[in-house]
Design brief:
The structure is a single chain. By secondary structure, the protein is α+β, with helices and mostly antiparallel strands. It has helices at residues 7-31, 113-143, 148-162, 166-181, 185-210, 214-222, 227-257, 269-280, 283-314, and strands at 46-47, 50-54, 59-64, 69-74, 81-84, 88-89, 96-97, 102-107, 110-111. It folds into two domains: 49-108, OB fold (Dihydrolipoamide Acetyltransferase, E2P) (Beta Barrel); 122-314, MetI-like fold. α4 (166-181) packs across α5 (185-210). The protein has nine helices and nine strands. It comes from Marinomonas transparens. One of its GO terms (biological process) is amino acid transport. Residues 118-305 form the ABC transmembrane type-1 domain. Part of the binding-protein-dependent transport system for glutamine; probably responsible for the translocation of the substrate across the membrane. InterPro entries: AA_ABC_transptr_permease_3TM, ArtM/GltK/GlnP/TcyL/YhdX-like, Dup_hybrid_motif, MetI-like, MetI-like_sf.
Length: 316
């Protein structure tokens, strides 16, 4: 007997819902009399606009179209300019050219501003993630420490950071701490994201460690391990498996939260999107493209963590 007799039906329901959402977006655009201009977007992601090569001096042109070779002999005795290969010839053999005159065009792949913004977002997220994990791990351990000073400091840090908005913290790190320590925009942004995310990771680490039965620590200590050895070799590996799903959610939040650093003029994906909107006057297309690029980042991270989770569960 089939375990899921209505599986095909529910898949059809899912497809209909997606189609309905797509139609809703289309109908909404029609209701506000909006003309979609998707053809404007690709050039801001990856452009193939031709690169124009100009003459650096006055001279005479020699063209060998068979071998795709252009030579410019200088009138002032400078070393000749030799161009090997071109797509479009803008001058003729024997022409006299002056400094700055266009000679040839070649196809050239250019990374668009949205792609540069995506790269900046990726850099911010990766660096912040590394520091956030380090901060969260040590703060989580301090949170369950028997030392009152460490415990109170960790609780104060966690409650202070979780109780204030990230946007406010970014301003404090950039305008106050950044001014005192002479931090650039990127460093201030990374510091704010790391400290903010580290507070949440600390609580995830604490809950993961406390979910392990106390007998595990006692057994490790009875085998002659000290506290640090028992924590590193016995407790943390088990806690890591249990905290992987909430940790993945926090990592994804970090990527999305990185959009807030645009307020301190870091040209991440969100700021690049605003700049493209101002030049294309196509806000819906640009923001849908930006949302898709964020989705690609978070989806890739989610997929990687799911694969890791399955591998760890298979090793049990």
């Amino acid at each position: 007997m089939e375990k899921h007799p209505h599986l095909l039906l529910w898949k059809a329901v899912f497809v209909l819902i997606i189609i309905g959402l797509g139609f809703g977006v289309y109908a909404s655009s029609k209701s506000i009399d909006y003309t979609w201009r998707w053809e404007r977007i690709p050039q801001y992601i990856l452009s193939t606009e031709p690169l124009e090569i100009r003459s650096p001096f006055d001279g005479t042109v020699t063209v060998d179209e068979t071998n795709k070779l252009v030579t410019v002999e200088s009138d002032f005795g400078d070393e000749p300019l030799v161009i090997k290969g071109f797509d479009t010839l803008l001058i003729n053999d024997g022409d006299l050219v002056f400094e700055g005159d266009p000679l040839v065009e070649t196809k050239h792949w250019n990374i668009g501003p949205l792609t540069w913004g995506l790269i900046m977002t990726l850099q911010l997220s990766v660096v912040s993630l590394i520091f956030a994990v380090i901060i969260g791990l040590f703060t989580g351990l301090a949170r369950i420490s028997s030392n009152p000073a460490l415990r109170y400091l960790s609780v104060t840090y966690i409650e202070l950071i979780r109780g204030t908005p990230l946007l406010v913290q970014i301003f404090i790190f950039y305008f106050f701490i950044g001014t005192v320590l002479d931090l650039d925009r990127f460093t201030a942004g990374v510091a704010a994201l790391s400290v903010f995310t580290g507070a949440y990771i600390a609580e995830i680490v604490r809950s993961g460690i406390q979910s392990i039965h106390p007998g595990q620590m006692e057994a490790a200590r009875s085998l002659g391990m000290n506290y640090v050895q028992a924590m590193v070799n016995v407790i943390l590996p088990q806690a890591f498996k249990r905290t992987l799903p909430p940790m993945a959610g926090q990592f994804i939040n970090l990527i999305k939260d990185s959009s807030l650093v645009s307020v301190i003029s870091i040209t991440d994906l969100t700021k690049a999107g605003r700049e493209v909107v101002s030049s294309t006057f196509a806000p819906f297309e640009v923001w849908f493209a930006v949302a898709l690029m964020y989705l690609i980042l978070t989806g890739a991270l989610s997929w990687a963590i799911q694969r890791l989770e399955k591998r760890l569960s298979a090793s049990d």
